[in-house]
Amino acid sequence: MSTSAPPPPPPPLSPRPRTAGLNCPKCGAAISLRSFGQAITVVCGGCHSILDAKDPNLAILQQFEAITSVAKPLIPLGARGKLRGTDYEVTGFQRRSIQVDGISYTWQEYVLFNPYKGIRYLSEYNGHWNDISICKTLPTADFSGATYLGESYKHFQSAEANTDFVLGEFPWQVRVGEKAAVTDYVHPPRVLASEKLDKEVTWSIGEYMYGREIWDSFKLPGDPPKAWGVYENQPSTVATNVTGVWVAFAGFAVFLLVLMAVFDMHAKKAPVFNHTYQFNRAEAKSEPSFVSDEFELTGGTATVEVKSYAAVDNHWIYLNYALINQDSGQAWDFGREVSYYHGYDSDGSWHEGKQADDVTIPSVPAGHYYLRIEPEVDPSLATISYTVDVIRDVPVLGIYGIAFVALLLPALLISWRAYTFERSRWSESDHPPVQMSSSSGDDE
Amino acid sequence: MFRKLYLLYGLLTLGTAAFGQYRGWSLDTVNQLKNVPKSVRDNPGSYRSVYSGYHHYTGGK
Amino acid sequence: MSQPVANCPNCGAKIVFRWSSSVQTVCDYCKSILVRTDVDLKKVGQVADLPPDSSPIQINTEGKYGNKSFVVVGRILYEYDQGGWNEWHVMMNDGTSAWLSDAQSEYALSSSSKPLNLPAASQVQVGQQFTWNNQRYTVSVITPAHYRGVEGELPFQYWDKTDVTFADLRTESRKFATLDYSDPEPALYLGEFVEFDDLKLKNLRNFEGW
Question: Measured between CA atoms, how close is B27 to chain A, in angstroms?
Fold first, then answer.
């Protein structure tokens, strides 16, 4: 209460956290800690000793020889990038590997740090990236799958991951050579992973990212590494509701049948001309062509079927037709062969050709018509009779055939692409699809 | 996404098929000519399909 | 709300209590731990230098939880084999007190709950389940930790603890619980995990280069 005492000095401000500058006890290289106290271990960039980040003297925890070529992180330590609206700094890097069937698969992991938001991770394998964070709520899992935040994930792979190489700072006691039992469950574009290290299980959730997004986010020069194959949680660019496509196809096929029935009933199929002619070589010498009587074609624009019959027996006749509109001068010009051959040989009896022919002329408008016919006949025949039939408005079944194939092909293509994409995805898992061809050779 | 495209494509295909049936399309190829003179009716020999290839039959056995 | 003012019995500095129910505080100048008695402040201990820690929260940080706002008035620091964490004592704008924990940037807000059939420290096991307020809690991890330091105002006396055991209980939602075995009587705290952005924190620590 007395006012005679001098006012006390202001309280010392709590020191602002700074990136600590220290030296490696082994080689003396400068060590900078960027994660403001969240690092448990830090790797000396010079001699690769793993140091205790919580110890002011940076006690040496492990020394490892970089036996394999020193892995260079694609995103350098200290680089900053924006993920999910927050800036993160790369503070750590490790290279890990698993062995499957005697083959070693390596991937890279990056530790990202933000002093307010904490730590995230990026993983990269064959050009495929994932944005990973530790799960706050626990998933439930069994051998076939897992559930997390209402989504179910399928078991993809279980393996033992070895830490091959480390750089930078880590929020755990990292050691080169440490082995963790890792299990991945996928639900593209996410992957749920459990890692068991020294009896402690950590769950993390990752979301697929494209190299281009990473390069843009961290403003890295050049291009990201090309993505090879299909990654476990890579979203499918060719997926679609395949079942839905086939349901649509079935619907279309039914509609096609209905169309067929409707047009078949609707087609008049009216015979408008029928005549039998006798070809006589002597007469035909002077002028082989002739014209038929007129006939009328009714209705709107429709098809006209022209049928030709001749009792050829190992002979041929060829009829040059012209269907001519008397009033408009429009003509349809076509030639039809009627030939039939048969005989015996070493394989038995054979035959080729037919004694009849028919052709459908498209889109003939109504009007008065006649036929101009110029026959040509096998030189060995002196005479032959043939019949010409003209029928107005016949349905063309071939159009439905084409439409059916046109509807089928895209459905097949869509299914095929989605199928091969997923096969590619699962071929890398513990549950690869059964070999389709005998290319493996082992089973045969 | 592909399903929607397929639906649209399918409707177009069906529409085209129906339209073709209605308009009398066929699969056979036939040459068309215009302005055939009325005189052909009296003189069939004068008919020459100069606008398309008038070909003699060259095949056969 | 009138803020009680007193003088530090050790160095004479002015002590202001933001929270009327504060039982203990730390003098900013001489780091003496002071406990409020009926009559005056009594020095009971001394806080050693706090280790440099990573929490972006500091005394006087303000934030929001649901429709209530709060201000940070005190903290307890804990350490365990994997690192450390902070329990920040916050005063809500309705006068109640709660705890905002910051463990490796994982944030959670909880408040003390009435103890109901709590297991003793020797009895609690990972995997045990309890049902409180119609919610099922499962013990997920038991952490032996030790007290590292205090700062600011606390609602109880707390200093110079040696080893303390905490049991974390999780649910399938964001709700969680903590069993605190600092005292002979186990204490139960019920709360939920919160996202940093949802807390809308203001007046945070400055980090060099950020």
Answer: 7
